[in-house]
Amino acid sequence: MAGLSPILVLAIASILIGAAAQPVADAYNGFIRVSDGRFVDATCQEYLFSGWDLLETATNKKSYKGKQVLPDCREPAPGVSCSLMFFIIGDDNPTRITLMTSPGVFNEKAFQGLDYILSEASKAGIRLILVPLNLWKTNNGVPQFEKWCGTDKLNTIGGERLQAPYDWFVMPQCRQVYKDYLASIVNRRNSINGLLYKDDPTIFAYNLINEPRCVNCGPDAINTWIADIAQFLKSVDPNHLITVGEEGFFDSRDPQRSSNPAGWADKSGQDFSPNHASPSIDFASLHMWPDNWGRTDIQFGRDWIKAHITAAQALGKPLVVEEYGKNTRESDITSVRDPWFRMVHDMVDESLATGGPLRGVLFWEWDAAAIGDRSGKASTVRDYDTTIKNEIVPFSQRITETAAQLHKTGTTSVPGCTPMPFKIPQPTVVAASGSSDDSSPAPGGGRRLLAAH
Questions:
Q1: d(CA 434, CA 296)
Q2: Cβ–Cβ contacts within 10 Å for residue 342, how many?
Q3: Which of 66, 91, 176, 382 maximizes the CB count within 10 A of its CB?
Q4: What are the residue ranges in the chain where pLDDT is below 70?
Q5: In this predicted structure, what is the pLDDT of residue 154?
C-alpha cells in the first residue's frame, strides 16, 4: 500500500490466522512449498491460512515493538490463532532506523530486531514473509536504491519519477546492488539462535518488492527485473517461496485489463500473468485498495479477485490476496467495511471447497495497540470492531475447522506431492556482532558472495 503510516519504522507485520492442517505446534515440518497448486509442508500436509497486516513495528527488541507484538499476535481475539508474517519496509523519516545504511553496510540494531522476531516466532509456531524493498518509501526503498545507483536524476517519464524508475529497473549495475542486498539478508546469521536466514523454516516466503510501478514504461522493464531478481534469489536461497508483491494490474494488451480499476492501471508497468510466470515465482499475489483506486463498488472487488483467480488457474500457481482493506468511519464499520470482508472470505471459502487457486488472504490492517488515527475514515481494525466478531473470527474458525477435518479424514496429504526429508533446526547461542547501534559491513556474505554466482 502506498500510504503507509508514518509510525512504521522498519517493518510491517502480517498475521496468518488458522494455519496448518496439523496443529501449530507441529508446524515446523520443514519449509513451506507448493505442490499441485497448494501450499504444503515437507510431509505433504496442506498448509491453510488466513491473515492480516499488523500496524506495529519491530525494530527494537527491548521495546513493545519487539517484545509485546508476538504475544498480542498469538491470540489477538477469542477464537483466533495465528502465525506471523513480517515485512521489512523502510520509512520516509530519515531519523528512523533503516536496515541498510549504504550498499553493503547494515545497521546491526535493525538486524538484531529482526533476529529477535524470527527467534520468538519460531518458538510460537509463527511463520513470516520478508519484504526487503518498497517502491513507496525512501529508507530502504526504491528512491534510496536509485540514489545509490545514480539513476535518481535521470530522465523521468511524464514528469513522474517515483512511479517511473525505468533506468533503475533495467540497468544491470542497479540490479546488482539489490542482489547484493538480498544475498546479505539470506546469509544473515541470527544473533540469537545461530540460524542462517536461508536455513530458517520460520520464513514462509519473500516478496521481491512492495507494489512495483513503472508508469508508461511498458511491461518489459518490471517483468525482466522480476525474472532476473527472482532467479537470483532462488539461487542463493532455494528453501523459501518467492512471490512478487504487486497490486496485480493487467497490461493494456491483456484481455483481463477490463478488470483493472481504471485506464491508468493499464499503463502501470505491471503485467500480472507474465510477472508471475517465471519458474522462480512460486505463487501469485495481489492487493486490493478500493478507496485508493476510486472503485468502492463491491462488485469491482468481486470481479478483481475473479480475474486473478482465472489468471492464477492458467498459471497453475496458488493465489494469495496479500493486502486488502476498506476505509470507513467508525460509525459505518458494520455497514460499509464488513460487507467487503465478507465478500473476500466467501470467495476464499468457495475456492478452497472447489480446489481453486485462491488459498489465503491477509487484510489491512490490525491495530493491536490502538495507535492508528481513526479521527476520519480509516482501514484500521481493532478488537472491538464488528469486523473482528462478525467476519474475522468466523472465517478464522472455518479455516481451522477445514484443516482439522482434513486431518481427521486423513486427506491432508496433497495427491502427487513427494515428501522431502527435513530436520528441525537446532538453534545455537551466538554472540551479537557489534553494539546495537553499529552499522557494519554485510554479515555472512554480501558482496563477497558474487564470486560464487
A1: 50
A2: 16
A3: 91
A4: 1-28, 54-96, 155-160, 407-412, 424-453
A5: 84
* Among 315, 239, 226, 318, CA closest to 275: 226
75 noted as active-site residue: no
Is the pTM here over 0.85, yes or no?
A: yes
What CA–CA distance (Å, rounded) separates 9 from 93?
8
Distance CA 79, CA 397 (A): 7
Residues 237-288 have pLDDT tens digits of: 999 999 999 999 999 999 999 999 999 999 999 999 999 999 999 999 999 9
Residue 391 phi, psi (nearest 5): -120, -55
Separation CA 153–CA 77 (nearest Å) = 48
Neighbours of 448 (CB within 10 A): 15
Instruction: Give dist(CA 244, CA 240) in Å, integer.
Output: 13
> Distance (Å, rounded) from C-alpha 57 to C-alpha 279?
33
Q: What is the pLDDT of residues 367-385, one digit of tens each?
A: 877 778 898 999 999 989 9
Say if strands 284-288 and 319-324 run parallel, antiparallel, or are unpaired: parallel
DSSP letter (8 states) at residue 46? B
**Alpha carbon distances (Å) from 204 to 85, 128, 242, 380:** 7, 5, 9, 24
Q: Tell me the pairing of strands 128-130 and 203-207.
A: parallel
Contacts by residues 24-31 (CB-CB < 8 Å, ≥ 24 positions apart): 24/81, 24/83, 24/125, 25/125, 27/83, 27/125, 27/127, 28/122, 28/125, 28/201, 28/202, 28/424, 28/425, 29/422, 30/201, 30/420, 30/422, 31/201, 31/239, 31/240, 31/422
Residue 108 catalytic? no
Please count the other Cβ atoms lying within 10 Å of the Cβ belonging to residue 237.
20
How many residues are given for the chain? 453
Q: Could you say which of 108, 247, 323, 391 is catalytic?
A: 323
What integer pLDDT is reported at residue 96 of this predicted model? 65
**Amino acid present at 169:** F
Give 361's strand partners: 321
Pick the catalytic residue from 211, 246, 322, 365: 211
Alpha-carbon gap, residue 385 to 382, rounded angstroms: 6
